[in-house]
Amino acid sequence: MQKGVPVLTAQRRDLLLDRLRRDGRIVAKDLAAELGLSEDTVRRDLRDLAAAGLCQRVYGGALPASPAVGDLATRRDVAVDSKQRVAAAAARLVAPGSTVVLDGGTTALAVARALAPGLDATVVTHSPAVAASLVEHPRVEVVLLGGRIFKHSGVACGAAAVEAAERVSADVFLLGVTGVHPVAGLTTGDADEAAMKRALARRAADTYVLASAEKIGAASPFAVLPLADVAGVVTDVPADHPTLVDLAAAGVPLLHA
Questions:
Q1: What are phi and psi of 174, to 5 degrees?
Q2: What is the enclosing helix (H) or strand (E) of 100?
């Protein structure tokens, strides 16, 4: 697309999405100068794309939107194989005799199912689905934290759940997020859910991020934790992926599934 050549709105937006896929971010000022457009035009297009769920707006531009922000039923069919690999690696972080806080969501549910049958440990969770999946595990003690159920993700959130979390002391927290990005950090799609995740992270000695492929390089509206606050990111994405290269350069420990 040549600078100064008029383009249709649909063409501009296709270009913006292509740049997001290629570069992992858009800086509105820079792209406007490159294309000979007004910065207001680029920002307006980004607003429309964000409203359609196709990008995540941030100060000065936009980042790729996470496909992991759908409801539980939708997420069950997203990156299934990747989640299984991440879950198997994360399950190995649960040491015999330890207490682990296990987040909600489809990857966390896969972790619960990947725990070794002979494992003797305590799992604390605010996800009824995760708790139910462990009821028949022969040696895992299950502690379910209660509160208002956020139906979109099937987890307890709100004041009662946060208060319950404050009585927990754990060795490890296996954290689920919808976005892992070197600029935006760790993000999710709901403010109350993000607050609950922070409350759980405060109660564990180490926090590891469950980062299946669809979450790498994506962002959602609400910050959970800075990357500097986690002990590692568990992912099966190749080490040469641009996001992982940036994370490694920033000193974020990466655990390859």
A1: -95, 105
A2: strand 99-102
98 vs 192: CA distance, rounded Å? 28
Cross-strand pairs, 182 = none
Q: Give CA–CA dist 103/105, Å, rounded.
A: 7
Quote the CA–CA distance of 201 and 203 in Å, as a whole number.
5
Tokens for 75, please give them: 């997420």
Cα–Cα dist 26/224, whole Å: 22
Partners of residue 56 on adjacent β-strands: 63
Residue 55, judged by CB atoms within 10 A of its CB (0-12, 13-18, 19+), counts as: buried
Residue-level pLDDT at 1: 44
Residue 132 banded pLDDT, cuts 50, 70, 90:
very high
Distance separating alpha carbons of residues 144 and 118, to the nearest angstrom: 21
For the full predicted model, state whether its pTM sits above 0.85: no
What is d(CA 131, CA 220) in angstroms, rounded to the nearest whole number? 26
Q: How far apart are CA 195 and CA 193, in angstroms?
A: 5
